[in-house]
Amino acid sequence: MPSWLPVLLIGMVVALVVGLGGYLFLQAGLHRSAPTLEQATRTGAAAVGQAVAGQFAHALALGIPLAELPGVEPYLRRIAENSPQVEGMALLDADGRTISSTMQGTEGTRFPISAGGTRATLVVAPETPLIDRAMRRVWIALAATALLAGAVAGGLVAFVTRLHQEPAQRRFLADMRGIADGIFAVQPSGVYRGPLADAARALAQCVEGVRAARRNLVEAAATIRAIDFDGSLGRRVDVILQPIDRRYAFPETDDDASARTQGSSVAWRLALLFGLYAAAFPYVANFAIDREPEGIAAAWAPVLPLLAELAAACLGALAGATRAGRNGGALLAFALLFGVCVGATYWCRDYGVFIALRCGAGLSAGFVAAALLCRYRLDIRPRELATLLIFAALFAAPLLAGLYGEAIGRRSGFLLLGIVTVVAAPFIAVGMGASENGATARAASRFGRGDVLLGMAVLPAAAMILVELPIGVGFDDYLSGGGAIALLAAAALAAPALSPLACAAAMLAAAAVLHLPVPYPGVSVFAACALLGLAAGGMFKQIVDAANRPWIAIAVGVAGGLALIGALRHAELPFAYLAAAAALVVIAVNLAGRHRPATAGAA
Amino acid sequence: MAPSSRIILAILGATCAGLALCAALVFGSLDRLSLRTAEANVDFLLTQLGDTVEANVGLGLPLADIRVVQDLIERAKVADAQVLAVEVFSPDGVSLFNTDRGSIGEPIPPVWQNAVRFRVANERWRVEEPGSIVVGQVIRNDFGEPVGYLAVTVSGEARGEHAESVLAGLARQAAVVVPLALLAVLAVAMALARYSGRGFARLAERLGDAQQPPNRALPADLATEADRVLASVRQATDDFDRATADVLKVDESEERHAA
Lengths: 603, 259
Hints:
Chain B: This is HAMP domain-containing protein. The complex is a heterodimer. By secondary structure, chain A is mainly alpha-helical. Chain A has helices at about 5-60, 70-80, 130-180, 195-225, 230-245, 255-280, 280-290, 305-320, 330-345, 350-375, 380-410, 410-430, 450-470, 480-495, 500-515, 520-545, 550-570, 575-595, and strands spanning about 85-95, 100, 110-115, 120-125. The two termini of chain A are about 40 Å apart. Mean pLDDT of chain A is about 85; it is low at about 440-445 and about 595-603. Chain B has helices spanning about 5-60, 70-80, 110-120, 155-210, 220-259; strands at about 85-90, 95-100, 125-130, 130-140, 145-155. A 5-stranded antiparallel beta sheet of chain B has the order 2-1-5-4-3, with helices on both faces. In chain B, helix 1 runs antiparallel to helix 4 (about 155-210) and helix 4 runs parallel beside helix 5.
C-alpha cells in the first residue's frame, strides 16, 4: 500500500465524519432554535410596524391625506434598511391600493391605521436575514472544522509514519539484508508492540539460533586451545575458524533506540509548543488596537506588542540555549509561565499590560523552544522538522484558533489557549532524560546569502500573518483571519523548491493582486496569501540546506516585516509595497550572488 | 502500547475535538444569533429615542435640561414588555433620566463605564448581565461631541431559555452522534492499521516458524528478503555446527595420533 493512501483515507473519513456530525448538530440546534428566533424576529417586526403605523396615524390625525404625505417611500425604505427584522414595507389605502412600497408584492403582517376619518394599512414583511447570514457563516465554519479535523488526522498518520514507522522499518529491513549477507545483528527498533516488533523478535530469534551455534563453536575451540600445549592444535583450529570468521560477522547491537525515540518525541513537543504559540496569531494585533493605546501612533499600535514579543522571544531563546535550559524545573516553570501569560490576557484591558503579557509569552516560549532544541538530539531532518512545525504552527493552530474564536470569542479564546497550554506544559517540558545535542557545529558559521534570501522570503509572509490579516480581513472575523493564515501555510507546504527569481515573481504577483483593483477585495487578500506562502515555502525548500543560521534568518525576517509594515502604515502606504520591496531585494541578492564567487556556506 | 494503537487513539482524539468544536460553533452561532435578534429588536427603539434626544440637544439645550426625555423613556418602556429599563446618563457616568426614578443622580455601574470606554462600535455598546442585556448608544450634539449615553436594558430571560434549549438539543444529538462517529473512525483506522501491518505480521509468522511452509503469501519484497534471511540463517547454523564438529574432530584425531 502506498504510504499516502492511509493518510488520504483517514483524512477523508475523519473529515466526512466530523462534517456529518456538524451537520447533525446544526440540525438539532436549529430544530430547537428556529421557532424562538423566528418568533423574536416577528415580534421585532411587529414593534417596528406598530411604531410606523403610529406615525402615519399621527399624520392622519393632523389632517394630512396619506396621498399627499411627502417622502413616504424614502421613509419606509430607511426604516426597512435599518431594521434587520424587516424585509419590506408597504402602505395601502382603504381600498387596498398601494400608496407606497419598498418592494414588489409586499406580504406580511398588516397594521390597520385609522385616524381623522381615514383608513389605511401598513404591511410589514418580516425577514430573517440575520438567520440566513448566520447560517452561511456556520456552514463555512463547519466545513472548515471538518477540513481541519481531516487534515490533523491525516497529518498525524503522515508524521507518525514518517518520523517513527518508516525509520523503524528501514532499520529492520537493513538488518534483514545484513543477516542475508552474513552480518548477524538486530538493532532495537524502538517499537515494542505491533507487527513490526513481532517481526523484529522473530528475526532476533533466528539470529539467536546462529549465535547459539557460534557459541558452541567458540566453546569447542576454547576447549581445544586449553589442552593445546605446543600450539599445533590451535593452528589446525584456526584453519577451521578463519573461513567462518571471514564469512560471518556478529557486531555489537546499537543500544541507542531510546535516544532515537526521544529525538522524534522532541519534534512532537516542539510542534505542540509552536502550535500553542501560533494559535494567538489571529488575535494579537487586533486585540492590541482594541486597547486604544494613548500616546502611540495608530499605525504602530498593532506592531509594537509583536516587536516587543519577538525581542522577548529572542532573549528567551538565548537564555534557553544556555545551561539554564538544561534545568528541567526551569523548563516546566517557563512552559507554565507561557500558559499563564496567554490565559491572563482574558482579564487584560490595558495596552501596556497587554505588551507585558505578550513579552512574558514570547520570553517563556522562546526559552522552552531553545531549551528543547539545544538539550536534546533531534533525530529528524531539518526539512521534516520544518514541515511538521509549519503544519502545526501555521496551518492547524491559526485555523483552530479562528474557529474557536468564532465559537467563543477572542478573549475567551485567549483564556482557553492559556488553559490548554498550562495543561500541556508537563507534556512539553517533563519526562525526558537529558541527551546531548550535537547539532551545534553550524552555529559558528556566518550569516550568508542563503540566510538573507530566507529572511526576505519570510518577511512579507510574517507581516501578512501577524499584522495585515489580523487587522484586515481577520478583524472581528477570526475565522477569515485564521483561514487566510492556514491558506498561506498550505501553499508553503505544497510549494515545490523554487529558484529565488521564481519566489520574487510570486511576491510581485502578490503585490500586484493586492494593489490592482479587483471586484472582491477579500478574494485578493486570500490570493496574495497563497502567493506569499508559495514564495516563502518555495524559497525555504530551495535554500534551507544553504542557510547557515536559519532560525536567526527567520527572526530577522519577522522583525523586518513587523518594522516595515509599521513604517508603511505610518506613511499610509499599502501592504503591496512591502511585498514588492522584498521581491526586489531577493532579485538584487540573487544577481549579486551570480557576480560574486560563492563564499563558504553560501547557497 | 503498539504504535498503531497510539495513532488510532490520536485520530479518535482529533475526531472528538472536531465534533466538540462543531457543537461549540453551532451553539456559539445560535446563541449569538439570539442575542443579535434581541439587539435588532432594540435597535429600532434606540434609534428612535436617540434621534429624538439628539434633535432636542441640537436645539442648544443641555441634555440634563431636556425634561421631555423622561416622558419619552417611560413611554418606550411601557410600549415593550421586553424592555426592563431605559436610562440616559452623562459622559461622567451620572444617571440623568431613568425609568427607575430613584436612580436618577446615581453613578452608572463600572461595567457600563468600561463598555462605554472600550466597546463602542458603530456608536453602540453592549453589556451582558445576568438575566439582562444592556444596549447603549452615544448621544452626540451637532458638533459630533458625545453629550450623553442612552441605555436600554432588555430581558435576557428569552436568551437564557434559548441557550438552554439549544444545549439540551445538542447534548441529546451528541449522545448518539459522537459514539457512532468514533466507532466509524475506529473501524476504518483499525482496518487500515491491520492492512498496512499485515506484511510484517506475516513476516513474523514466516520467520518464527521457518520449518513450516508459509500459510499466507508475503508481499514480494519481504518474501525475497525473508527467504534470503532464512537461507542465510540455515547456512550459517550449518557452517557453525560443521565447524564445531571439525574442531572437536581435531581433538579426537590428536588422541588417535597419540594412541
